[in-house]
Design goal:
The protein is an alpha+beta fold. It has 2 domains: about 70 residues, no CATH class; about 70 residues, no CATH class. About 35% of the residues lie in helices and about 20% in strands. Strands 1, 2, 5 and 6 form a 4-stranded mixed sheet that branches. It has a 4-stranded antiparallel sheet with strand order 4-3-7-8. The longest helix is centred in the N-terminal third of the chain and has 15 residues. It is flat, with a radius of gyration of 17 Å. The mean pLDDT is about 95.
Length: about 180
């Protein structure tokens, strides 16, 4: 029920104003009124402009995606605010980043980094980042497969309590109107 409410609210607010910061702020106000005070939701909301190679985003308390430039420079996409429904009047900043050929952005749920092995050791961001850097030349779909395989290998294929969700955005080089 929580996810249905969240999805309907976000979709409704995107129609009014699709800009990530405004949409999340409006959605937060509505969700805070309609949800149980103990419930909240985290999410990353981004709009990918294929023509300008730009990702405009806002993060509502979700794990911070990695932006890895072709030259190896890495940063976290931090801009946003608190989890939705957490505070009644929360504001959400938004930012735009331009993706150059060879750049990639990796969004992931905490189910990936919190995958636990038999010794109660989490997979963690360090292993995640190492796997990204070792396999960054792969196509986006193949990189996702490698990341899940790596987390599951760490967890020794033990059942996990949370889902593993990944999205990889990779700007490839093109010869026509790059």
């Amino acid at each position: 029920m929580l996810m249905a409410n969240l999805q309907a609210t976000i979709r409704g607010q995107c129609v009014v104003d699709p800009s990530p910061g405004v949409c999340l702020g409006r959605a937060n106000a509505l969700l805070h009124q309609s949800m149980d005070p103990q419930n909240y939701a985290t999410l990353f909301y981004g709009i990918l402009d294929f023509q300008n190679h730009q990702l405009t985003y806002s993060n509502a308390g979700h794990t911070r995606p990695y932006l890895i430039r072709r030259n190896g420079t890495k940063s976290l996409l931090k801009t946003g605010g608190v989890a939705l429904s957490f505070l009644p009047n929360a504001e959400y900043e938004q930012e735009a980043v331009v993706l150059s050929p060879g750049d990639l952005c990796v969004l992931y749920s905490d189910g990936v980094t919190e995958a636990m092995n038999a010794n109660d050791e989490e997979y963690g961001e360090e292993r995640l980042l190492a796997c990204i850097q070792q396999n960054g030349e792969l196509a986006a779909e193949q990189l996702i497969e490698k990341l899940i395989e790596s987390a599951e290998h760490h967890a020794e294929n033990r059942p996990q309590w949370d889902d593993m969700t990944l999205v990889v955005i990779k700007r490839i080089e093109t010869n026509v109107n790059d």
